[in-house]
Amino acid sequence: MSRCHDSLESLKARIAGLERACAGESSGEPAGLARTGHAGIDAALGGGLMRARLHEIFAFEADDAGCATGFAAALALRLGGTLVWLREGEAEKRGGQLHAPGLAEIGLAPSQVILGTLPDALAVLRAAADVTRCGDVGVAVVELWRDPRAFDLTASRRLALAAEASGVTVIALRIAATPAPSAAQTRWQVAAAPSLPMEANAPGYPAWAIELLRQRGRPAGGAWRVEWNREQACLAEALPVGGAGTGGAAALSGAVLPLSAGRPARAAALGFRRAG
Amino acid sequence: MRIAATCAEARAQGLVPGMMLADARAQIGHLNVELHDPLADLKWLERLADHCDRFTPLVATDPPDMLVLDITGCTHLFGGESALVAAAEDSLARFSDHVRSGCGDTPEAAQALARFAPGVTLARPEDGDVVLRRLPVAALRIEEETETALIRAGLKTIGDLAMRPSAPLAARFGEELVERLDRLLGSADSRITPRRSPPALRFEMRFAEPIARTEAAMAALAELAGQAAEALEQRGMGGRHFAARFYRSDGRTFDLAVESSLPMRDPEVLMRLLHERLDALSDPIDPGFGFDMIRLIVPRIEPLTPAQLQLEGGAVSEEAMAALIDRLSSRLGRGAIRRFQPRDTHIPEQAALTLPAVDLPAPEPWEAPQPGEPPTRPIHLFDPPQPIEVIAEVPDGPPHRFRWKRQQHHVVRFEGPERISAPWWKHAPGRSGLTRDYYRIEDARGRRFWIFRHGLYDSERPDPRWYVHGLFA
Prior knowledge:
The structure holds 2 protein chains of 2 kinds. Chain A is of the alpha/beta class. Helices cover 32% and strands 25% of the residues of chain A. Chain A has helices at residues 2-26, 39-45, 65-79, 89-95, 100-106, 121-133, 153-166; strands spanning 33-34, 49-50, 54-59, 82-88, 97-98, 113-118, 137-145, 169-175, 186-192, 207-215, 223-229, 234-237. In chain A, strands 6-4-7-8-3-9-10-11-12 form a 9-stranded mixed β-sheet, sandwiched between helices. In chain A, a hairpin with a 4-residue loop joins strand 11 and strand 12 (234-237). Chain B is of the alpha+beta class. Chain B is built from 13 helices and 14 strands. In chain B, the strands form 4 sheets. A 6-stranded antiparallel β-barrel of chain B has the order 9-10-11-12-13-14. In chain B, strand 10 (399-404) and strand 11 (407-420) form a beta hairpin. In chain B, helix 5 (107-116) crosses helix 10 (175-185), helix 11 packs antiparallel against helix 12 and helix 12 (267-280) packs parallel to helix 13 (314-332). Chain B starts with 7 loop residues before the first helix and ends with a strand.
C-alpha cells in the first residue's frame, strides 16, 4: 500500500516537473535563466537566475548556516542537473555534516549529489576549478568557511570565467564570511525567518529572509521573505507571521491569514499534531 | 650503543655488527656513524622489491635484509635459471656493494644458500642437495638455544641432521626443527607470500634503450591500453581498476592508477583518465635517465556486455554520471569524491553513509519525504552532537530556553518529542545506551534546531543532558 502511494507521489512530482518545464518554455523562460518561482525575485533578476555564472550566498550569521545551505540546495534544485557539492574538512567539524535525509527533505535527491570533501580552502578552490571545467556538471556548490585568503577577486574571477566557458552554474556558499567584492553575478544574504507555524505551534516549512546584495549589470537591492515549497519545488512569498518573536501561541494571528493550498486550517495553537 | 651494520671498509678494519660503539671508536679514530633507522631500511627493501618486479610477479620481502623471488615459470624468459640469477644480481649490484644470492627448490633452501654458500653456481640440480647438506645448522634459522644444543650434541651440519630419524629429533629438539629441515631439503612444500597477488591481466613493454620523455612513455602506455582493450573485449570483460607502473633504469618505479565506477575497456577513455591522474600527481613522474620498462595491469575485471539503451535515456545519464565520477575521482583522489548511501536504521547519525563514489556505481534511491510535512530531519548534522544548557520542564517537558555557543535562544515553536531509543536488541540489557527525545525547535529569530534530551529523566539518568544535533534549513 505504502509502496503504491510512494510511486504515485513520485509520478505526481515528475509530472509537476514536466509541466513546470513546459510552462517555463511556453512562457518564454529564456535559455540560460532559471526561474525561482517567486515573482518579485524573478523580476529583480530580470527573468530568473542566470545559468553558467557564479552566484554567491552569504549566511547572515554563522548560526544561519543551515538556512544558507537550504537556500543553496533550493537554487541548485531549480537550476537542475547533477550537483557536485565541495566542502572543507574543517567545515564538516565546525558546521556539521551535510545530512542526506535533510537534503531529501528539501526535495533534492541525495543519489544525484556528489560530495567532495577536501582538506582546506585552497584544495576546495582547486577542485572547484576542475569541477567547473566538467561540462556534465549541472551545478557546483563551493562551500567556504570564513574568508579564506585563497578566495580573492582573482580566484572568483577565474571561477566565473570557467563557469561561463563550460556552462556549469557555480554557487559559492559562504558561511561566517563578510561580503566582499567578487566576480559573482549575484550576491545574496540569507538569514533565518520565522516560519508559518503548523498545527500545535510546530515549526513549519523552511522560511528565509533573503536579500539581494548585488548583481552585475542590473540594479541591486531587494529583500524578501520566502518560503520553500517542496512539493512544487519553488520559492513562494512567506506569509507574514504575526507577533513573531514575542513568543507563545497567543500572538499568532492565524485567522486573518490566507491559507495555502493543501494545508489544514490552524484552528487553535494548542493540541497535538500528527507528525511523521 | 651497538653497531647494527657496517660498510665493507669498516669490515676490513675489523668492525662487526653487534660491537659496542665505544670500542669501535677506540679502534678507529674518525668513525662516520649514522643512527640506525629500521623504518628507512624497510622502505629501501620495499623499493628494491618493486625493482625486482621485473623478474617475476611473485616477490616477497623478508625483513630486515632479504628478498624472496618465486621464479617458477619465469626462467625461460631470461634464458635459464643461472642467467636470471645473474641478471638479478647485476641489476641489484647498482644499489648495494654487497649482494648475495641463492637459488633453491624451496624459499628456505634459497635463503640458506644465499646466506651460507654465496656464489655457489650449481651445475646440476642434485648438486644443490650436496651443498645444502654441508651447511651449518644455523642455516635452519632456528632459535639460538636449539642451535647450541645441536652443536653440543655433535650435530654440526644439515647433513648430520638429515641422516638421523626424525622422531627422536622432534622429541628432543621440538617439532619445529624437523619441519624446518623438511622445508630446507624440499621434502615438505613451502610457498612465499607475495607482496601483491598476481593481477588478472598484465601487459608490458620493454625498451632496449630507455625512453627519457614522459610523453613518449604515455604514448607507449596508450599502446598497452589498446592491447588491454583487445584482451578484455575477447573475454567480454571490462576493467574496474587499471594500474600502470613505470620502471626507471635506476631502479625507481612510479605508479599511476585509476579506478572506474563502471567496468570499461575503451583505451581512449582510459588514457584520458590516466592523463588526468598524471596531471593531478603532487609528485610528478620524473623520467630521469629514462624508463626501461612500462607495465599495465588490470587487477579487477568484471563482465561488460554491450548495454542496450533505454527508451527514456536512463542508461545514458547513468553512464555520463559514472564518467563524471571517474574523472573527478582520478583528479581529486579516490576518497575525496563520495556519494550518499541510505541505511536502514532509525539512529539519525547512521542513516546516511558516504562511500567513495567509484565504489558505488548505482546508489539506492532515497525514500521520498511525506508530502505536506515540513522537514523532519536537519540539513546539517553535528557529529558529535554539541552539548547545550537547557531550561525545560521536568520530567519530560519541552525546552523553553537554551544556551548554545554562548548565545541564548528562546524557544518560540517546538514539535516533539520524537523518541528514538537505542538499539536495545543488539546489546545486553542496560548496555545499549540512552533513549533520546528529539524536539524540532524554532527560536525567536526563526532559526530552526534539532535538539534532544539524552536519557529519560529519573528512569535512565537523574539529570539528563541536552544536545543540539542539527540545523534545519
